[in-house]
Amino acid sequence: MSYQNHPIPVKAQLFLNSLSKSPIGQAITWSGSGEIVGHWRGWKISSVFQPILHSVHSVNAHGYEAFIRCVNSQGVKITPRGLFANTSDAESLMHLDRLCRTVHLLNFILGTSSDKKLFLNVHDGLIFAVVDNHGSAFRKVVDALGFSSKRVVIELPLELSRNTNHLSFVLQNYRLNSLDIAINIDSIEQWLSIPQLPKVSYIKIARNILDTYPNPVEQVKALLASDPDVKVVITKNETFFDSFEDSRLYTQGHSYGYPAQLVSDFPLNIFGQQDVTTPGLFIGG
């Protein structure tokens, strides 16, 4: 089965076919508009995706960063920060974070071609709450849906870039689960001063931070020079970045594309009869 000229993994087809439009007793359902939504303590969680573009070929998306949108049955909206702030205990935080990432993954499977990367944020509370084997539970979700782990990029919060001991531990765990890593930083000097620079796939830095430097382009070049394999993503661009040509430089922000839904128009049961092998997604409530 394919949608918008790209194939849907068989395991994902089976899981999608098992979903209903009723949230009663279910953590994940179809919405009336054809997107996948999550349900958490009276809140409905949906996905929007912002493109990450190559700085040279800015019409083509390299990947998309997923963000949540959250509303209750009365139409009241809450910010992602507010949603997570109302989830204080570590176990619930873990379930909520994984639910959000699973909703994003399902919507991404329905809405994109097979060569795009999916950037998924991990809440900082979860990073410090999990004591071992970061990424193992979500890797099971990725495998259960037949999605390629090579297309998943786990995006780590700013707080972790300043805690290098814990960062090294977390990176080792994610590498064991074959998941690429992006790290957000807010100080180029601090990052480059780390004695043994952590091996990450992407460094993300906001445009407003770069603009505090006399020569932002030289700062970007310094980040690229720190590791021959690392890619740099300049985020929160409200105007186009006056960049240079480099195959490892990417841009993100409202100037290049607003977060938007990738909505599927699949009807229910489009994939045929529900199968007993429908994959479980290891999500608690």
TrEMBL record:
Gene3D superfamilies: EAL domain. SUPFAM superfamilies: EAL domain-like (SSF141868). It comes from the Bacteria. InterPro entries: EAL_sf. This is EAL domain-containing protein. It comes from Polynucleobacter victoriensis. The lineage of its organism: Bacteria, Pseudomonadati, Pseudomonadota, Betaproteobacteria, Burkholderiales.
